[in-house]
Amino acid sequence: MSDYVLAHTEAPDQVMAGLIAETAAMPNANMQIAPDQAAFMSLLVRAVDARRAIEIGTFTGLSALAVARALPADGSLLCLDISAEWTAIGRRYWERAGVSDRIELRVGPAAETLAALPEEPTYDIAFVDADKTGYDGYVEGLYPRMQTNALVLLDNTLRGSRVLGGTETSPDDEAVIALNDALIADPRWETVLLPIADGLTLLRKR
Fold it and tell me: What number of helices (H) and strands (E) belong to the chain?
């Protein structure tokens, strides 16, 4: 199924393929988003005509590259991540892709960086792929900073199907299970959970 999906989805270009390959050789390569998810995110950014984007959890920069490339020339992406080492890999590929001028990277605890941002509706789209126990706090922190009708994308919301129950779960799994249940009952958001990769939840701010 995965091969068929990839064969019928916009393929990564040389720069993106290089980043995917370099990250795949790392011990924690499973933290990288899937190529089809990257293609979907680029399409979504273009479809909603996003200009201001924010990302919580950048890793080696594939999601940031997918988003930044889809932004207009005067668009901007703010990336929050705790690792200077991992994001340094992303910086090289952002430069090669010609989008480094659209990306601002702030290294440090994302919750603190987010809390320090003005509580003004600024962003059109957000992507969260960081510590799962922090997701609820990130969603709350993003809410006042998103425009009306803005989208927030949450990664790994299926947790390898462990959200369905019946298997041993971790604190990360339990945090996502609780968040999934809370979001579908939260009137502030229109919520759709898509079975893309390991689950991608789309929230639209009402």
Answer: 8, 7
Q: Which long-range contacts (CB under 8 A, 24 or more apart) does 158-166 make?
A: 158/193, 158/195, 158/198, 158/199, 159/132, 159/198, 159/199, 160/198, 163/199
Query: Token match 């299926």: residue?
Result: 158
Domain boundaries, the chain: 2-205
Looking at residue 162, its amino acid is: R
pLDDT in tens, 127-184: 999 999 999 999 999 999 999 999 999 999 999 999 998 899 999 999 999 999 999 9
Residues 126 and 149: their CA atoms lie apart, in Å, by: 12
Q: What does the pLDDT look like over 12-55, one tens digit per residue?
A: 999 999 999 999 999 999 999 999 999 999 999 999 999 999 99
Please give the structure tokens belonging to residue 158.
């299926």
- CATH topology assigned to domain 2-205: Rossmann fold (3.40.50)
pTM for the full model?
0.97
